[in-house]
Amino acid sequence: MAPLLEPISSDELRGIICTQAAPVVVAYVDKKCPVCQSYVPVFREFALSYNGDAVFVVAWIHRVPEEALRIGLSVVPTTVVYKDCRPMVALPGFAHPEELKALIEKALPEALRREEN
């Protein structure tokens, strides 16, 4: 079971993104977005069932506006995989469990290539 966090500020989110050894999978969502309201339970369920090495975060954009601006977020929901404090891959829209798994797997080889350089 992977950790599931909900930061209350952009500073807290940056701290999570930049201090974890494992990839950090962040779902940026808005409480006023009906699609986001449907996505959060799917994301939570996936996080709780994921057997790999990752940290999962639900980031409500009203709590993390500076971070949303910093990455140029334009669509919610958007799921971003971070490694070593950097966004590796992003998927705008509602991501189904198989898409989330593929997104993480896509980010991991990229992270390994960056570590080798």
Protein model, in words:
The protein is an alpha/beta fold and 117 residues long. The protein has one domain (4-116): Glutaredoxin (3-Layer(aba) Sandwich), CATH 3.40.30. Helices cover 44% and strands 23% of the residues. The chain has 4 helices and 5 strands. The chain has a 5-stranded mixed β-sheet with strand order 1-3-2-4-5, with helices on both faces. Strand 2 (24-29), helix 2 (34-49) and strand 3 form a beta-alpha-beta unit. The radius of gyration is 13 Å and the shape is globular. The termini are far apart. The mean pLDDT is 90.
Number of domains: 1
User: CATH first level: which class?
Assistant: Alpha Beta
Approximate helicity band: 40-55%
Mean pLDDT: 90
Helices and strands, in order, run as EHEHEHEEH
Strand order in space, largest sheet: 1-3-2-4-5
How many angstroms does the end-to-end distance come to?
31 Å
**Unreliable stretches covering 5 or more consecutive residues:** none
What name does CATH use for the topology? Glutaredoxin
Largest sheet: 5 strands, mixed
Strand proportion, as a percent range, falls in 15-25%
Beta strands, count: 5
The fourth-level CATH homologous superfamily is Glutaredoxin
Shape: globular
Contiguous helical run count = 4
Could you tell me the radius of gyration in angstroms?
A: 13 Å
Quickly give the structural class. alpha/beta
CATH architecture heading: 3-Layer(aba) Sandwich
